[in-house]
Structures are given as structure tokens and as C-alpha cells.
Amino acid sequence: MKPSRAMLVTLGASALVLAALPGAAPAAQPGPNGATIFARCAACHTATGRGVPGAYPPLGSDFRALAVKPDGRRYLVLAVTRGVSGPLVVEGKPFRNVMPAQSGLDDASVAAVLNHVGTVIAKSGPPFKAFTAKEVATARASGQAITAADVARLHATVGGG
Ligand code: HEC
After folding, report:
1. What CATH architecture applies to the domain 31-157?
2. pLDDT one-digit tens code per residue, 97-146
3. By CB neighbour count within 10 A (0-12 exposed, 13-18 middle, 19+ buried), where does 128 fall?
């Protein structure tokens, strides 16, 4: 059978996509890999971010709602860098547990994992705007004296729910 024009166009497009792949991967993900870092969060929050009722809160609509407010974004950074010790209400459900501060994550790594949660894990809520390492550095520096219990209280004041 003689290949039609449409088939040739399709083949040509596929070849272009394949040719672009090897070069595209590093350009799309510079710096730390948020998906890789998320593996440590998944130990508690689960791989899909659904969490465990009464123990580990979901990383979903509350996360995305917080991420549209400056104070909420600061809270999300501090949750990772200082930890969270409730009581805490997330998506209407109570939690009274402890998240340890996540050590060994530099500013770019914190930004990468929050961006992975905001774009891949948390699927509902308002549009997500990415964190930069610079924003993480500023938020982290503002919370040097803050305890995990303070972080949980911050959640209520920034209007997380
Ligand atoms: C050892 C278990 C554990 C690990 C690991 C963990 N968390 Fe948590 N996380 C918790 C618990 C428990 C809470 C709620 C604490 C409470 O009940 O006060 C929480 C709360 C949070 C919150 C606040 C949610 C909200 O809507 O207010 C965020 C955000 C969060 N975690 C993100 C992360 C990220 C990102 C990581 C990985 C870098 C991570 N957590 C790793 C247990 C964990």
C-alpha cells in the first residue's frame, strides 16, 4: 500500500516528538526532583496524597487553597521546614498528630517538593503558582523561632480548613 499524505505527516510528527525527548527531560526539570523527594512525604501522606483519616492529612484542596495566599505559602514552607503539631483541621477533618521537620532539604528541594504536590498530587482547588527557592529562603528565614505547634496555629489564622 502506498502511504497516504496523512500517514506521512503522522510519521513525521512522531519522529519529531521522539527526537525532542532526550533533550527535553533535563530542560524540563532543572535542579532537585520533586517527585523523588515526595517519596519521603508519601511514607505518611500516601503516594496519592490522600492521607490517612485521623492520622495524616490529605495534600489536596487545602494545600492549593493555602498556596494562593502569601501567608498560606509561608505556612506551607514552614510546615516542611519546622514541622506541624496539631490540633489541625484539614478539609473539615480533625488531626492531632505530629509531622517532624523535614531535615536535609535545601531551599530548591523544598520548592521542588511543594511544586510536585501543587501540580501532581493536589488535584483540586484554585490554580497553583510555583514556589521558587528564593521564596522558600525568605519564608524559612522568617520562621527560625517558630515551633511545630506555632505552625499548626498558623494554619487556623491563614484560613486553612
Ligand atoms: C512522619 C510522617 C510525615 C512525613 C514524612 C511528612 N508529613 Fe506532612 N504531615 C504529617 C502529619 C501527621 C501532619 C499533620 C500534623 C498534625 O496533626 O498537626 C502533616 C501536615 C502536613 C501539611 C499541612 C497540611 C495542611 O493542609 O495544612 C503539609 C503541607 C505537609 N504535611 C506536607 C508534607 C510534605 C511536603 C512532606 C515531605 C517533604 C511531608 N509532609 C512529610 C506527617 C508527615
Report:
1. Orthogonal Bundle (1.10)
2. 999 999 999 999 999 999 999 999 999 999 999 999 999 999 999 999 99
3. middle
The set of cell numbers assigned to 115 is 511544586
Q: Tell which atom from ligand 1 comes closest to the C-alpha of 100.
A: 1
Atom 18 of ligand 1, residue of closest alpha carbon: 86
Q: Pocket of ligand 1, candidates 76, 80, 99, 151: which has the most ligand atoms within 8 Å of its Cβ, to mutate?
A: 99
H helices of 29-143, in order, are: 34-45, 61-66, 70-82, 107-116, 133-142
Taking Cα atoms as reference points, which of 33, 158, 161 lies closest to residue 105? Answer: 33
> Full-prediction pTM beyond 0.90?
no
Instruction: Show me where the domains of the chain are located.
Output: 31-157
In the block, cell 496519592 appears at: 48
